[in-house]
Amino acid sequence: MKWIKQNKGISFLELIVVIAIVAVLGSLSIVGLVRFRQTALLKQAAREVFASTELARNKARNSSLSTSKKVNSVLEAKVDAYALVFEGDNYALYYCDKASSIGSGVDDYICNVETANLKQLIYSDISIEVDEGSSYDCQGVLFERVSGNMRLFSDIGAVRTTKNICDIVISFENTNLNQKIRFDAENNQISYIKL
After folding, report:
1. Is the pLDDT of residue 124 over 50?
2. C-alpha distances in angstroms, 38 versus 13, 32, 35, 48, 190?
3. φ/ψ bin of 9: left (φ > 0), alpha (ψ from -120 to 50), beta (otherwise)
4. Rounded to the nearest 5°, which phi and psi values hold at 166?
5. Which of the two ends of the chain, N or C, has the fewest CB atoms closer than 10 A to its terminal CB?
6. How is the chain split into domains, by residue range?
């Protein structure tokens, strides 16, 4: 008579092999999920910078010729433009008053903060900076009243047009993930650039 061996379970070695396979697959999926989260946060931060820029442009376009803004509940300031200003690792919305320089033919703007610190706290690992490859310092982008025409500038104290193109790099710290937004004043366009 033949005896049939009956398996009543799994061996210890089989259990260790299965646990090792599950551990390797789990660690790979966690790395993928972390990268996915970082990419999603970076894209959302870029969309928010882009949306803030469009907000400044739309505020400028929708301003009438007699637009003014109350400052300190008493003083009214004339609004000739709106600007998005990049300050260190943050950005802010400004309203600006035009003051023509006598004889220079250059329009200067005097700007005041309307909304400071637009960068959301959720993006603490996201940095925003002017592209290091730029040959000039670009502090922000200004949109003129009614027309919405774009100007780039290097000093918020006396806004003057600098060059026609400014690139802002939004990156996730300690990774190689980044997104670039290009402000093209010559063609009056804002666009994403894939890196």
Report:
1. yes
2. 38, 10, 5, 15, 24
3. left
4. -135, 130
5. N
6. 12-193
What's the full length of the chain, in residues? 195
Angle at 70 between CA 55 and CA 155, to 5 degrees: 55
Residue 29, C-beta contacts closer than 8 angstroms, at least 6 positions apart? none
One-letter amino acid of 174: N
Which of 194, 191, 193, 154 lies closest to 54, judged by CA?
Answer: 191
pLDDT at residue 112 tops 90: no
Percent of the chain's residues with pLDDT above 70: 74
> Using an 8 Å Cβ cutoff, are 42 and 192 in contact?
no
- 53 contact partners, CB below 8 Å, separation of at least 6: 84, 141, 181, 183, 190
